[in-house]
Structures are given as C-alpha cells and as structure tokens.
Amino acid sequence: MPPAASSSRSTLVTRMAAEILARSDRRIRVAVDGRTAAGKTSFGHELAAAVRGFDRPTLRASLDDFKHAWPHADEHGYDRLSGEGYYRNAHDHDSVRRLLLDPAGPTGSGQVVLCAHDPLTGIDHRDVVVEARPDAVLIVDTVFAFRPEWDDLWDYRIWLEVAAAESLARGVARDGSRDGADEAARVHQDRYAVAEALYIAEVDPVSRADVVIDNHDWAAPRVVG
Questions:
Q1: Per-residue DSSP letters for 63-124?
Q2: Assigned domain for 220 exists
Q3: Confidence bin at 135 (pLDDT 50/70/90)
Q4: The whole model's pTM is what?
Q5: How many domains does the chain have?
Q6: Whose CA is closest to 100, among 73, 135, 62, 69?
C-alpha cells in the first residue's frame, strides 16, 4: 500500500469504493486504466483497501501478468517490440477472458487465475487458481483495459488522466534505475507511447469510463468526468 497522500485523496478513493459497491452485492469487476505511469497500480491498491473497509472481499490483478511469454513471439513469428506490435500482440486475450474476467463475473465460476505469466521470469502460473467469493470485487490495473477483446466484461471502468508528456517523464524516471535512462526513454517513446496513442485513437477510452480522475497531483486527484 502506498502511504496516504492526503485526506482529500483518501476521501475520493472511499467515495469511489462506495459508488462501486452500490452497483451490486454480487461479484464486481473493476478496471483501472490510464497511460503508463498514470498511477494505476497504486490507485488499485488504495481502492481495494477502501472496498475492504466496507467489509467486501477483494482480488487484485494486473494485465501485465497476462501477456504472452517472450519466446511466444519468436515461436509464432509476430511483432511485439514496435508500438503497434506491442498494442496488437503482447497480451494473451484468451487467458484474460477465460481465466480472469469470465470466472470473476457475477455469474462466473469463481475459480479465478490472477496471474498467467510472470512478466519478469516468464513462469507459467495458469494452474494457480483462487476462489472468489460470491460478493468479491476484482480490481485490475492495466493499460488498454477497454479494448474490444475484453471490454464487455467490466462492471465499472476508471480512467486515470495524466498528460502524455507527464506519462513519459514518470515512466522514464520509474524504469531508468533498472534499465538505464537512455533505454527507458527509448522504450517509452518508441513502444509504450506509440501503443497508447493507437489505443486512444481507436478506442477513445475516456468516453467509455464510468469515471475520469485527474491524477496529475497525487495529493489532490479530482473527478473530471
């Protein structure tokens, strides 16, 4: 859990949790979408904690854990390195639907896989199944959440808004210590930023969100749509 940034942030997150829970007393699937480094993972953690504060169980997942293992691209001869290739080909769409979102739905089996492939090691975890209670709330952070391959399976959609330039700066700062500043800048500019521009142009995710939150100022996020 990230530390509480401010009372106003905590109030907003708690309000979002209450609004989500008012939708149903059955299982609910929530997407937290936005550009790279918009703050999706931290917001997802905060939202899950707020939901648990209302005595509802939660599950957490990231669709970073539902990409094809890297050797898959070589074996099947497709591009996932360019921006367009990353957007079109990196995620395992079938596993997202079949293992995560379908079973976590209100009429699903409740037998949920929260990680398909570890993105760092490539280890296959698709046989690790957890039980989602009938009133559980699944909160998933990811880029491209509202793409048509799985958009119909969300019950509540959140978009965290940060400008493209802010996303790039945050992403390079985050990944530079691991990959080096030059390599981080190259990957974010040539792959992630290009992929996100395609997604925004094709899907218009802001228009699909149930709520849009300006997350430029960590201590003072604002609902703007």
A1: GGGGBPPTHHHHHHT---SSHHHHHHHSB-HHHIIIIIITTTSTTS-SEE-S-SB-TTT--B
A2: no
A3: very high
A4: 0.93
A5: 1
A6: 62
